[in-house]
Amino acid sequence: MRKVLLWLPLALFGLLLGIMGHGILNPEQTTVPSRLIGTKVPQFDLPAAVPSHAALKSSDLASGKPILLNIFASWCLPCITEAPILEELKAKGVTIHAIAIRDKPEDVARFLSDHGDPYASIGSDVSSRVQISLGSSGVPESFVIDGKGIIRHQHIGDIKVEDVPKILKALEEAR
Amino acid sequence: MKCFALLLLLLASPALADSRMGAAPLANVQLTDVRQERQARALMETIRCLVCQGQSIADSDAEMAGDMRSLIRERIQKGERPEAIRSWLIQRYGDWVTYEPPLSVTTIFLWGLPVLLLMLGGGLALGRIRRTSKR
Amino acid sequence: MIAELGLGLLWLAAGLAIIQSGLGMLGLWQTNRPELGNAVRPVAVAQALLIGISFACLIYLFIVSDMSVKLVVANSHSDKPMLYKVSGAWGNHEGSMLLWVAVLAIAGAGIALAERRVRRDTLIATLMAQGLLALGFYAFLLFSSNPFERLNPAPQDGQGLNPLLQDPGLAFHPPTLYFGYVGMSVAFSYAVGALITRDVGPAFARAMRPWVLGAWVMLTLGITAGSYWAYYELGWGGWWFWDPVENASLMPWLAATALLHSVTVLATRDALRAWTVMLAVVAFSMSIVGTFLVRSGILTSVHAFAVDPQRGSFILALMLIYIGGALALFALRVGTVREGAVFEPVSREAALVLNNLFLTVILGVVLIGTLYPIVAQGFGQQVSIGPPYFNPAAGSVALMLIVVMAAGPLMRWRSDSAPKVLRRLAIPLAIGIVSLLVVRLLAPDMGVLPWLGLSTALLAGTGSIAPLWKRNLLRTPLFTWGMVVAHLGVAVALAGMAVDSAFFKERLVAVSEGQTTEVGPFSVKLVSVEPIIGPNWTAIEATMEARRGDGQPTTLHPQARNYSTPPTDTSEAAITTHIDGQLYAVLGKQGQDGRWQLRLWWKPLVTFIWLGGFMIALGGLLALVGRVWRERRGMKSEEIAA
Lengths: 175, 135, 642
Fold this sequence. Notes:
The complex is a heterotrimer of chains A (about 180), B (about 140) and C (about 650).
Chain A: H1 2-25, E1 45-46, E2 56-57, H2 58-61, E3 67-72, H3 77-91, E4 96-101, H4 105-115, E5 121-125, H5 129-133, E6 141-145, E7 151-156, H6 164-173
Parallel strand pairs in A: 3-4, 4-5
Antiparallel strand pairs in A: 1-2, 3-6, 6-7
Chain B: H1 2-11, H2 34-44, H3 63-77, H4 82-93, H5 105-134
Helix pairs in contact in B: 2-3
Chain C: H1 2-29, H2 34-38, H3 40-63, H4 70-75, H5 82-88, H6 93-114, H7 120-144, H8 168-171, H9 173-196, H10 202-233, H11 244-269, H12 273-296, H13 309-333, H14 348-378, H15 387-407, H16 418-424, H17 426-442, H18 448-465, H19 478-503, E1 505-511, E2 516-519, E3 522-533, E4 537-548, E5 554-556, E6 559-563, E7 568-572, E8 574-578, E9 581-590, E10 596-604, H20 607-641
Antiparallel strand pairs in C: 1-10, 2-3, 3-4, 4-5, 4-6, 6-7, 8-9, 9-10
Helix pairs in contact in C: 1-3, 1-7, 3-5, 3-6, 6-7, 6-9, 7-9, 7-13, 9-10, 9-12, 10-11, 10-20, 11-12, 11-14, 12-13, 14-15, 15-18, 17-18, 18-19, 19-20
């Protein structure tokens, strides 16, 4: 018994080391995925973010065909690098709706004229209310929503060139 | 802003910037009803900030934390129960978002831990004291 | 040239560390050749000298802003104030590791020169362990984090130091913690040395004690200062967040506190032999676990610093070798260590065993709570562990610990009777129970933890001065004073925590210039908001006048600062200290209507938290001075007798 007890500290230390080693290989995740994937988009009705674009409400998203919902902001730098890729997606026939977070109309307008405008409609979410109700934790983020208005896929961070096939596949599967 | 600054250094990415919008209506304004404000504050202290992940939204400068505080205060003002708001947030962000996770095997283990350690250590110490006092 | 000199000296010092540990091993093995063992001491001193100069080289490079050195470029800037140029030398991973090993070597030289209490072979074994320990960190520095690396071509200027770290308090925060960690490593080396030579006894405990005490004082100061830094710098009036990095500094402190008490039992009563050795190993491993948690980036933290997973693996490998080795040695050797002296269930030893039990349980709770998110993630869960867990789980055990803290010093060594102890404790116990009732009546809304905390603080406050009762205060030994001051400090800090968390007043408002608002007993007027320019920042500064009743107004100047290198925004809280608390003001953003967002707090007795922390450290210092002084005197009288 005493023998076992004497080796116990070493065993516990081994366990601790194992946990820490495991931690190095799998550091604590910093992205928080939305839990709403597979459920219907929560109800919302946002005013237009710029006069040139239509407003956005949740029923617009259940349009019979899959769409991409992009959450962006004019003050967010990765959104700028994402803009040309969204244009590319639009050229491939993807309908992109957007929600602008904490933005002023003139800033959104400038963003669109500087970095391109792939959006069918842009809702304005001045206090991140809709963003929170979607379980989104930052900008930019994109959701693939199917024809019935069910969230099928979430992309956290800016969509990079290499992410395009993944997004197209998710849109295809949502058909 | 502080946690932004640290995160910036940490990730060395310029991804996080502030918007030009002011804070949401109730982000930094207390509710007039003292009891409601206390409820709101207690809830905010246990909701984890999504942006500066090491803090609760009650003491975070992140804009999104401010928006979440405003959301919580508005809902409490409307008479919603804090626990209902918590489960609404958990529905969206998972257990990650709360520092007071719902009861599960995990949490039972964690809460039992001090008791377990006290009993184990107490047993060891008692054995030692008994053994020596017998001699 | 200086950078190459520094690097050369680093290599030489590493070579000496090899020689130091090699000679130590040979000396222990070939007992018939004493010259081998005798050579260990001068080598230890030489190693300290070389690495000390190497570190001085690094400081010099920072002072002259030598931008051909990579580390200087990454952490300094020529327009930085001198204090932060110097502190930039250790405000980063490589430099702090160099400081660490330099202090370690200097401590080794200190042992080599001054230690005369332990057996000769134990001393050699201790210095051998020290050499091996230093060797690991030399390897770390030379093979994965060379502080003297050059950058070619050299840039025009550096990238600056994180503005949050440009703070006089924080310039000295890391070295304070390193001194603490190094003290723990000396205790570890002693423990390993004593295990090797089977010399676990009072002499060994007495040799180890000043190092444990010194390290503990440093860790206490480090945690206290760090808490105050978070309090005024983070801008929300919080002083403890149970953040992984804070926990990383708390864990070695908890282990050191336990060790400090068990080493006293071993030194005075020759009991708890195996346990004390165990604790010395645990305390050192906790300081490495702490470093690992801070550096590896496996947990998300507000204060993450110099994060790099590769460094994490290196630290892990060092731990595997040193702690694993020490624990294996423990398992093999401690069976042959005789059990120490006996004691009764009611005795001071038993109270100290209880102290160790509670401290270890708190340590376990903090350690497992901190690492749990990683474990849970392995099972596919995402959980967040924070104040709502740590406060009650660790806090309730801490309250029991503090009650024992009040009772322990009133007990006799070896054997005491329960009724007599209760009689000695009568006044503190009565005060505790009465306050429990009175506080509940006066503040029925108070949370359970602050309520119990305040009553426990009153009990422990009176209990901790009880050992001075009916004693000639001038003839009371200095280390007894130290104990009393430190224990009283615990009570004072606890009172501060309880009162602040139960009775703080918060005011979040938007006001325009000239308007007045109320917070707690104060009325605060926002006089004006103006831009100002500092040495390497610009800011918006508010002028506020705070008035309490009809008293004189005090002026506060909270700022929203903007640093250029690297571009960072910080808010500088304005704090005024009063006898019964602090008024805390933060300037927020300007709204669209032109009004300024203010955050104001009245924090009653909050200063007691850090006052208590400093009292604890002061108590440790008094005990350290008292012990060393007495032993010097004892040694002199022995010499005279001889």
